[in-house]
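One chain shown below:
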Amino acid sequence: MKTIEREAADYESCLRAHRRALHRIPEAGYQEYKTHEYLMEHLAKTCPDDLRTFAQTGIRAVFRGNGQGRVVAFRSDMDALPVTEETGCSFASGHAGFMHACGHDGHMANLLAFAQWLCAHRNRLADDVVLLFQPAEETTGGAKRMIDEGALENPHVDVIYGMHMMPDVPKGKVAACAGPLMAQTCEMDLIINGQAAHGATPHLGHDAVSAMAHLLTLLQTTVARCVDPCQSALLTIGRVEAGEQRNILAGHARMEGIVRTFSNDVYEALEGHIRRDLKAVEAAFGVSTEFIRRVYYPCVQNDPVEFERVRALLGERFVQAKPRMVAEDFSYYQLQVPGVFVFCGCMDERCRSPLHAATFDFDEAALVPGLALFAGLVSYTD
């Protein structure tokens, strides 16, 4: 790993150039057209054996080895956030109202530099290496669309790795853990359809507001009493709306919220309990209800065997991570093949803003350990 790290350090200027160019052109999910053009132009220079578009704006580049190794995939997300940048950087966003405030510009720069590494080491590759540039991580989950369109096949991927810049991990360190690393999440709408009536004749209607109030209490009780206390589960209702007039029983109510757990099985059981609660409210208040999944990401769960490979490679750079309640659609790949996701530290004296902040920034030197890790996870011939 030390030899690879020394060689990876030679790519720092390349990492910096790519990251800053991509930082200037942030784009929303499935609208990453300028980003796609930039990536395709620079990937083509590395002469991959296969280079094609997936999921509208995503890209897959394949570098064939000698056929004696595994098929190893590496993934970067591409999309930006609807954030107005306040970093004051000379390379700040040129797209008003959008910013790479979550480090995806760094993730893409890392994979582009890795493509150059693979090109330079092509005659020694034992593994087939698949690079995935994926759209729409921040919104509807472009990972699933990449998979559905066959990005993990021909060649069939055996294992996948991914990384994320992390401003609370020191620069130069890489954090990970075996098992759950990031939470499952479901963004859900709970709809209550009642019957409007005048407030003076409530017996002629079915009050959606009363049903909603009882449902809100019932949901919190369900989490507290139906989930094993040794398991983590979180339910938040962050937005409600109901009614049109002060003297009219509401005929309709909507609750918008999230559920997060560290287990896909725990989530499925909890969703079953939530649907039971909806049926109970229907029976008690004479209303009808709907459960709508808006966004669903499974739990990011690192394969124990592949995690040990990562930890051994990192050596003194490794930091033991604690599971986080944030979510990532990298988890969809892990439902298909073993995989490991890591946090690449970028905290230093200057860069301490959290992810998604308008002031988020990092020193591109923080990308070098990520590049070295990716390069070290590939098998080479002597």
